[in-house]
Write a structure and sequence with these properties.
Elements lengths: L2 H17 L2 H6 L1 E9 L5 E2 L1 H14 E12 L5 E12 L12 E14 L2 E9 L1 H8 L14
Parallel strand pairs: 1-6
Antiparallel strand pairs: 1-2, 3-4, 4-5, 5-6
Organism: Roseibium denhamense
Protein name: SnoaL-like domain-containing protein
């Protein structure tokens, strides 16, 4: 898949995320998607991705900003750095109680692209920073993203 098409695929994925359109997001991934989040278990398959999205929609309202997308020449790999601007709307098991707290968290994702679909999504963020923010600890809400 050429670089331009892969860039469009990932841009479309992020636009769907920001629109809260999980059906669109799910339409862009492979049936055997591998989905990793740094603080959680590996999920394999579109059905597990769907379950993850249902859970996330229940607990969090998020919008991504400052997205910087990089795609390799062959269009088989991509990465993105971004800021997650969110609200914690329902308590997630094992985490602090939700009271509508807001947070701003730097994060990044890596993608593998195969046959015009996203075959792998790996996302990293600092969970402790997020916990500090929703727990009301000071100085935790400013993401550290420096201009080069």
């Amino acid at each position: 898949m050429p670089n331009k098409q892969s860039r469009f695929l990932i841009d479309t994925y992020f636009a769907a995320f920001n629109a809260g359109d999980t059906k669109k997001m799910e339409s862009l991934v492979a049936d055997d998607l591998v989905h990793d989040v740094n603080q959680g278990e590996r999920r394999v398959g579109k059905d597990k991705f769907w379950s993850f999205n249902v859970h996330m929609t229940r607990c969090y309202k998020e919008r991504l900003s400052d997205i910087e997308l990089f795609v390799n020449e062959e269009g088989t790999r991509a990465s993105a750095e971004f800021v997650v601007n969110g609200s914690y709307i329902a308590t997630d098991e094992g985490l602090p109680e939700a009271k509508g707290q807001t947070y701003k968290l730097p994060a990044g994702s890596f993608f593998e692209i195969r046959d015009g679909r996203i075959a792998r999504i790996t996302t990293y963020y600092n969970l402790q920073n997020w916990i500090d923010q929703v727990s009301g600890k000071s100085d935790a809400s400013e993401p550290v993203l420096e201009e080069a």
